[in-house]
Please model this.
Amino acid sequence: MADFILEIVGEDVSVCRADGAEIAPGTDGFDDWRDCTGSGDAEPALRYLRDNHSIEFRTIARGPDGQYANRLAEPAEIAAACRAIYFDSETDFDDLDMAQLYLLWHAAHQLEA
Model:
């Protein structure tokens, strides 16, 4: 079972604990998420977060039957979300590793807000 679920809906990204609980001070992993926004070079903290916690990247999308489904995100959906959020970036979001780090960074900032 995952520790965290990162949900992608279009260009909106949110994260919660796998049990649906809020990521709050004193909960497991909170400091790791906070570290991702604490310095100019966030990549080491983002890699630590991803490599030491199980994170499911999920998407909520309308299926061919017209119904919405919450399912594991495909690499192309992760890349598309990054392109929508970081539209002026020259980063290669087809590189799944890099795209995941960008979404984690975005989610960490959403937690901060």
